[in-house]
Each structure stands twice: as structure tokens, then as C-alpha cells.
Specification:
- The chain has about 325 residues and is mostly helical.
- It has 15 helices and no strands.
- Helices cover about 65% and strands about 0% of the residues.
- It has two domains: about 160 residues, no CATH class; about 90 residues, N-utilizing Substance Protein B Homolog, Chain A (Orthogonal Bundle).
- Helix 11 packs across helix 13 and helix 12 packs across helix 13.
- The protein starts with a helix and ends in a 13-residue tail after the last helix.
- It is elongated, with a radius of gyration of 24 Å.
Length: about 325
């Protein structure tokens, strides 16, 4: 589930913390923090599925309350159950892996019932929900499309959701949209014949797990060396006056380009130029692009960049 893009972001954030904090505890402590940060993203992936289930149960509870009224109307007694009967939600409820992970990590929305009610209200007031409930298309694909829309429309940029998550974990601040995209991708792959949902694993493979720790540790260990390389390639600039985040992005990029032979140079360059757009100053994109291009060309000429396999692709 964890993509290399998110790993790069987490490593960059931890590097900033390392070089601006008390790092006397050494690298092992920060390696544990990195792993914890990635695991919290995986927790969030499960929590978003649990929130969908809780909203569905909230809707069912409202139906039951209306049915039990003393003066129940025809609409109360014969409600539209399209959402509460959503086939994808039923698959999620039957997914033992989701339940076991949630229970073992104490993941639930029990402390924030107001968020469940809020998301439900946002949903039922939307045009997309009304269209879904009124549609004659009662197919599995229609249910799946609605669930993907649930994550994409009702949760992205929702102020209350962001506030609740921020209050519960410092690790979730920058994860929400990425993790939601993984929830959507999981649903997109679902088949009607499946009795449960095939959830993504934390890491795609062992290479990604090693990539996270190796990228962080090597960037720290080669900090002084790479700082000198940057200094040698900056004319008319005072290194101390440059944005620290810019420098860390460039250092991290140098380490990835020189240490990970299977990753194409162009892939690394594009990733770190994008990081500069979001995590540094307005002018950082052009600055990082220019300096990295100069350093990479120099290293290629000196034979310091060696690529194998997929990394040979330009």
C-alpha cells in the first residue's frame, strides 16, 4: 500500500526533524519513528474503511428508529435501503483481515460519533447520493462506483475529518489524500464474486521496506559530503541563506540517484522536483531542478552514477 512517493515524503519529514532536533539518540530511534509513521498511514487506510461501515450502520440505525415511531409514515415503514444494502460495504463488513487488524490495533471511531453523523449528513445532502438512491441501476458496479465516490467526494478536504485526524496523530497531517487514493484503488479492484475485500499490504515487497530505512540512513550518513557537493555547484549563493528544506530535498535526491541502482534517474528527479513544490518555497521548484540537473550531469561525467535493470531506463 505504501508507495515510494509516500516513503520519500516520510523520509524528508524525518530528516528535517533529525537535523533540527536533539539527535543524540542516534539513528535507531529515528528509524523506529520512520517505521511508526508508515504504520500509522496503514492504520489510516483501515480507519477509512471502518468509517464507511460506521456511516452505513448509522444510516441503518436511523431507518430502525423511524420504523419504530408511534406514527410511522409509509416512507418510514418502507424506506429506501439502497445505501445500507450496498454490496461493497457488506463485503467490507465480512472482511476478517479488516476486523482483526482493527481489533489488534484498537482502531475505531467510537470516540467521535459526531464525525460519523457529520459524514452521513454531508453524504445525504449531496446530489451524487440522491442520484445513487434514485437510480434504477441496482448493480454491483453501481454500488462500487458509489463507494469510490464516498471516499473521493465526502471525505477529501472535509474540515471536521481533518481536524479529528490532526488531533489524534501528528503522522496523519499529510497522508489523507494519498491514503484515500489507496482506499479507492482497493475498491476499484473488487469483484462481485469475492466474499470479502482483498486489502493491500503495508509494503509492496521487501525492497520497499528496505528502501525506506536505507534512504533515511544514507542521507544522514552522507550529509556532510553531499552538502559540499551542493556548495560546489552553487555560485553567488550563500548556503546558509538557502531554505533548509530545499537542501534536504537535494541531498535526499543525490543519495537516491547514486545509491539505488534500479531506480531510473529521471524518476528520481521528477519525484524530488514535485516534493519541492509542496514542501518548500515558491521558487524551490526551479532552484531544485536547476541544481539537481547540474549535479547529476557532473556525476554522470565522473562515472558516479551506475544503474542496472530498470534503472537503465531514461
Amino acid at each position: 500500500m505504501i508507495s515510494r512517493r509516500l516513503i520519500r515524503v516520510k523520509v524528508l519529514q524525518l530528516l528535517y526533524a533529525y537535523f533540527n532536533g536533539n539527535n543524540t539518540d542516534g539513528l535507531p530511534k529515528y528509524e523506529k519513528d520512520l517505521q511508526k509513521s508508515l504504520e500509522k498511514s496503514y492504520d489510516l487506510y483501515h480507519l477509512f474503511f471502518l468509517l464507511l461501515i460506521d456511516v452505513s450502520r448509522y444510516a441503518q440505525n436511523k431507518i430502525d428508529i423511524y420504523k419504530s415511531k408511534m406514527m410511522a409514515t409509509e416512507a418510514d415503514l418502507n424506506p429506501n435501503t439502497r445505501f445500507v444494502d450496498n454490496k461493497v460495504v457488506r463485503q467490507l463488513e465480512q472482511t476478517e483481515k479488516l476486523t482483526v487488524y482493527a481489533d489488534s490495533n484498537t482502531l475505531n471511531w467510537n470516540a467521535t460519533p459526531e464525525l460519523i453523523k457529520h459524514i452521513y449528513t454531508v453524504m445525504v445532502e449531496s446530489d451524487s447520493y440522491k442520484a445513487y438512491m434514485a437510480s434504477p441501476d441496482n448493480s454491483y458496479e453501481a454500488d462500487k462506483k458509489f463507494v469510490m465516490n464516498f471516499f473521493n467526494e465526502y471525505m477529501v478536504d472535509d474540515d471536521m475529518l481533518y481536524q479529528v485526524l490532526e488531533e489524534n496523530s501528528i503522522y496523519w497531517n499529510d497522508d489523507i489524500e494519498f491514503v484515500l487514493s489507496m482506499n479507492i484503488k482497493t475498491v476499484e479492484r473488487l469483484k462481485e464474486s469475492a466474499t470479502s475485500v482483498s486489502l493491500m499490504n503495508l509494503y509492496k515487497n521487501d525492497d520497499d521496506r528496505r528502501f525506506a530505512t536505507d534512504l533515511f540512513c544514507k542521507t544522514v550518513m552522507h550529509h556532510e559530503e553531499n552538502e559540499r557537493i551542493i556548495r560546489d555547484n552553487i555560485k553567488n549563493w550563500d548556503l546558509e541563506r538557502l531554505a533548509q528544506m530545499d537542501l534536504l530535498i537535494i541531498e535526499q535526491a543525490i543519495v537516491e540517484i547514486t545509491s539505488f541502482e534500479s531506480i531510473p534517474v529521471k524518476v528520481s528527479l521528477n519525484e524530488y522536483i514535485d516534493l519541492a513544490k509542496f514542501y518548500s518555497t515558491d521558487r524551490s521548484n526551479a532552484f531544485v531542478n536547476g541544481i539537481l540537473d547540474k549535479i547529476v550531469n557532473q556525476m554522470k561525467a565522473e562515472g558516479k552514477i551506475k544503474k542496472t535493470g530498470r534503472g537503465l531506463i531514461e
